[in-house]
User: Which sequence fits this backbone?
């Protein structure tokens, strides 16, 4: 799915130079895509030293002297102060911020505004965990998400907090952007999502001091895995929710 979203961004940008580029919430997927583009230089920002290491490994053979990976939080006003980039990518950054600087999402687009020279691309996920869908696939996807987030909280970590596209558009406009394009992409969750989310849940339970609770959560995760994989096989994928891409320019 990630490649589809990046391909759509490339289609929207067709005929325009990328120029200097900022990957404002970098990770291996986005860094690999950004490093494949025709740019004079690019900068990737992450709040995690481990993620920075993962990005460096992912693009080691493409990283030029002009490119850089920076570790920092967008709540730090000195981060990239005075810099301007022709194109800025915020790839799942909105949801991820809650894991690093809680309750700061409403400031994100205003914070990025001085850095955006020409165009901002926001990739996000419509929230799904707090809801009760009507389809069997939707219900099991939400069950997986709730277990993952519960294990994160029990292990003294913070789950991501996603925001809907309507909220994102409203805050972009309030921060001084003009919306150029907005599109949703229905999601089909695959076995990699199922196993990845449930493997994470099981790993997180290893941090719990209450071993009885940890074992119960582990058993629940394995039972959920069996049900989810069986439904995935029967339906050819678990269809639920949507990603979105919003294109904005300084107003």
Assistant:
């Amino acid at each position: 799915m990630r490649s589809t979203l990046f391909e759509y961004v490339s289609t929207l940008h067709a005929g325009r130079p990328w120029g200097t580029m900022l990957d404002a919430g970098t990770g291996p997927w986005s860094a690999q895509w950004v490093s494949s583009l025709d740019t004079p230089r690019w900068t990737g920002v992450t709040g995690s030293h481990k993620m920075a290491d993962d990005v460096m490994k992912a693009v080691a053979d493409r990283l030029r002297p002009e490119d850089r990976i920076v570790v920092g939080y967008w709540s730090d006003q000195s981060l990239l102060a005075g810099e301007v980039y022709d194109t800025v990518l915020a790839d799942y950054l909105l949801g991820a911020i809650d894991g690093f600087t809680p309750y700061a999402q409403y400031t994100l687009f205003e914070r990025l505004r001085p850095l955006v020279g020409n165009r901002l691309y926001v990739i996000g996920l419509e929230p799904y965990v707090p809801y009760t869908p009507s389809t069997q696939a939707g219900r099991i996807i939400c069950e997986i998400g709730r277990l993952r987030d519960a294990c994160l909280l029990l292990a003294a970590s913070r789950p991501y907090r996603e925001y809907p596209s309507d909220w994102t558009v409203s805050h972009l406009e309030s921060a001084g952007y003009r919306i150029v394009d907005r599109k949703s992409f229905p999601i089909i969750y695959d076995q990699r999502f199922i196993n990845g989310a449930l493997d994470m849940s099981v790993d997180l339970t290893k941090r719990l001091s209450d071993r009885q609770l940890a074992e119960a959560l582990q058993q629940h995760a394995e039972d959920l895995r069996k049900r989810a994989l069986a439904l995935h096989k029967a339906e050819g994928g678990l269809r639920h929710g949507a990603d979105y891409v919003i294109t904005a320019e300084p107003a």
